[in-house]
Amino acid sequence: MEIKTQQAKKSLFSDSAIEQLKEESESFQILKNEISKAIVGNKEIIDFIIIAVLCDGHILLEGVPGVAKTTIIKTVTKALGLSFQRIQFTPDLLPADLIGTLIYNPKTQDFETKKGPVFSNLVLADEINRSPAKVQAALLEAMQEQQVTIGSTTYQLDRPFLVFATQNPIEQEGTYKLPEAQVDRFMFKLIVNYLSIDEEKEIVGKNIEQQNIEQVFTKKEILSAQKRIKEVYVDERIIKYLIDIVFATREPQNFGLNDLSKLIMYGVSPRATLALYKAAQARAFIKRRYFVTPDDIKAVAPVVMRHRILLSYEAEAEGITSDMIIQKILETIPSP
Fold first, then answer.
1. Do residues 54 and 22 share a domain?
2. Quick one: 258 exposed, middle or buried, by C-beta within 10 A (0-12, 13-18, 19+)?
């Protein structure tokens, strides 16, 4: 298939265009190296964060306290040269604390707009599941529409606009379950785990040295790269493959996965199809390839789909996770 794929792309791209694409992708290796100055391990997490930035997608990071979720996001922001705001989500947080509000000025006898922290390129929503539905709804418009409404005026958010949210999977007291509509708007759900013993030792040295992170990109270069990944070639058979994976979560019996029918209440949405397509293009790009392979689809499928599959009560009772279901689907659907 690879030979045919390369023949197909050569009819679409000139050699100079291919070389330019490769050169631009190399700069993201420099970005990874810069981030690694302050971040130990988590190489796969960093890769997926870079892919999300390229796809202009939002990320939900889940992990126990102290595994550097916030540190990773701050480091990436510094290296990308983006404006950054951190919002600590609490039960008493109001929508106005997030998006801003109208304040009366007695001197002018008029209302003035005070913009909230959401008016940044990258917003860290720390412990997002600690705030109630009103705040979730306010963030929802910003995530989906790239805009905010204050009073009767709608403001467009600066591009790129990315929401990186964190949540703690252990302590559930005083938390609010994220609405399914909002969870679906996160392109990826990343699980941040503990480091290995050797990586834990390395952390001590990095903390002592206080690494400085240099800016690698400008905002203009990021927007240019977001356009560039759309040029990565995707063969028709790759498209069919990713759609088969998506439909296997909705109609597993049609793909020889009858045992999954009782475990899945609802399959993934069409947003998952688009996210798989774009994420595979971005992964091929940072791997210095100008065409998508089945391995790109397999690599991004778990992080794209794990939060979009709604499990049945039977699956939860048996301790079946969405990752297990995704792995079963990937093992069953034949690669092109």
1. no
2. exposed
Residue with tokens 């399959």, as numbered in its chain: 267
Domains identified in the chain, total number: 2
CATH number at residue 310: 1.10.8.80
- Asked if omega into 160 is within 30° of 0 (cis), the reply is yes
> Residue 192 CB: number of other CB atoms within 10 A?
17
Query: Same structural domain for residues 48 and 10?
Result: no
* Residues 6+ positions from 62 with CB-CB distance below 8 Å: 166, 167, 168, 169, 189, 190, 191, 192
Least confident of 14-18, 75-79, 133-137, 330-334: 14-18
201 with 67, same domain?
yes
* Domain endpoint, select from 223, 257, 286: 223
Structure tokens at 55: 């796809």
Residues 49 and 173 placed together within one structural domain of the fold: yes
Could you list the residue range(s) of the whole structural domain that residue 298 is in? 1-32+232-336
Indicate whether 66 pLDDT > 80: no
The pLDDT of residue 225 is 87
* Residue whose C-alpha is closest to residue 229's, from 188, 285, 291: 285
Q: CA nearest 230: which of 163, 300, 305, 290? A: 290
pTM: 0.86
Please provide the DSSP assignment of 33-63 as one string.
Answer: HHHHTT--S-HHHHHHHHHHHHHT-EEEEE-
Contacts of 72 (CB under 8 A, 6+ apart): 35, 39, 42, 45, 46, 49, 61, 192
